[in-house]
Amino acid sequence: MTEKIIILSDGRSKPLTIPADLAPPTGEVRDRLARPLRDLRISITDRCNFRCVYCMPKEVFDKDYQYLPHSSLLTFEEIARVARQFVAHGVEKIRLTGGEPLLRKNIERLIEMLAQLTTVDGKPLDLTLTTNGSLLARKAKALKEAGLQRVTVSLDALDDATFRAMNDVDFAVADVLEGIEAAYDAGLGPIKVNMVVKAGMNEQEILPMARHFRNTPHILRFIEFMDVGASNGWNMKDVIPSAEIVRRIGAEMPLAAIDPNYTGETAARWRYTDGGGEIGVISSVTQAFCRDCTRARLSTEGKLYTCLFATQGHDLRALLREGHSDAELSAAIGELWRVRGDRYSELRTINTDGLARTAARKVEMSYIGG
Ligand code: SF4
Fold first, then answer.
1. 341: cis peptide before it, omega within 30°?
2. Which positions in this protein are listed as binding [4Fe-4S] cluster 1 (predicted)?
3. DSSP letters along 311-365, please?
4. Which residue's CA lies nearest to atom 5 of ligand 1?
5. What is the pLDDT, as a whole number, of residue 260?
């Protein structure tokens, strides 16, 4: 009989300390590896209507799964207040995630609040969202009108049977493709389409997906299967390295490497040499990119994480609800970033088995967003 993993909402967190020095933010805080803070990912719900096998496997996140009570979620006002502090420390991009963020009621109101924010040098914030696309066709126009700039859509196969097996809730590809077109028509492009590749499950879809999105304005990115959380049964043998994905596509549709759009971009970019557009590969397992990682993550109940593979968060919600000032919140966030030294993927590459054996239970991706 297989052992059942029961995941309760991730209660493990440390208090967030307020340093004595409440110096105002400079917009240029750096961590211990001299990385700036440029990118905040905010999970706004721990709920999802999919059960993707690499993120929220059904046998773990089943009907008995305890979701977070609404009262423990950060309110939109709290999220906007926290976002303001991060922007003052240099954040230029905010990505809304989940679970499935479009399940959070009135998300448009939150987007309107965040869209008011400008970066330290007065530019509009790059406000984006990652979705499984299931509700996109219905919501795209309202999201754009609220101030959202772009969307990234997860789609793991074109073949319906394979896609249904990956999302494990019998959801059809056609509805996600319709959502992508609706988002594009609403002006939320360029649409990035993320495909997680798992050996023996959807690797046969690499070429059909590449052929489908080639010569379109959409950018298809292939993500190596990652050992996120503690419930997806990750094993190195299930990883198709990005170099192999590029080799398979390039054999049929020649590719050339191109420069990143900006430092810290997670995807390595490749363009079709015949002008048919570009693809990306996100290689956290075989080509770690921790050196340029400028990302912080906020869970839906207000815990701060400085790495996707963290084992513990820091409780920002407590500071919010204890009535601390903006200056205290800002100083606490700055101090947390200053002492940051995360580089999990680099360490995993050096010592995969050792790390997999010893590492404490990592936080679930569905809890802090990808
Ligand atoms: S493993 Fe952690 S530090 Fe490295 S790139 Fe991912 S989130 Fe950043």
1. no
2. 48, 52, 55
3. S-EEEHHHHHHTT--HHHHHHHHHHHHHT----HHHHHHHSHHHHHHHPPPPPPH
4. 290
5. 92
Could you report the per-residue pLDDT of 307-316, keeping only the tens digit for each?
Answer: 999 999 999 9
Predicted confidence at residue 370, as pLDDT, reads 75
More confident residue, 83 or 66: 83
Distance 345 CA to ligand 1 centre (A): 6
- C-alpha to C-alpha distances, 165 to 57, 116, 121, 367, nearest whole angstrom: 11, 40, 46, 22
**Nearest CA among 43, 118, 50, 51 for reference residue 86:** 118
- Name the amino acid, one letter, at 27: G
Q: What is the mean pLDDT of residues 360-365?
A: 84
Mean pLDDT for the chain overall: 93
Residue 223 CA, ligand 1 centroid: distance in Å: 14
- Closest residue by Cα to residue 179 from 221, 218, 143, 137: 137
Mean pLDDT of 340-366: 78
- Residue with more model confidence, 215 or 12: 215
Assess whether pLDDT exceeds 70 at residue 8: no
Q: Tell how far the Cα of 291 is from the centroid of ligand 1, in angstroms.
A: 8
CB-ligand 1 contact for 343 (6 Å cutoff):
yes
What domains sit in the chain, N to C, each tagged with a CATH number?
A: 14-368 (3.20.20.70)
Task: Extract the tokens encoding 87.
Answer: 């922007």
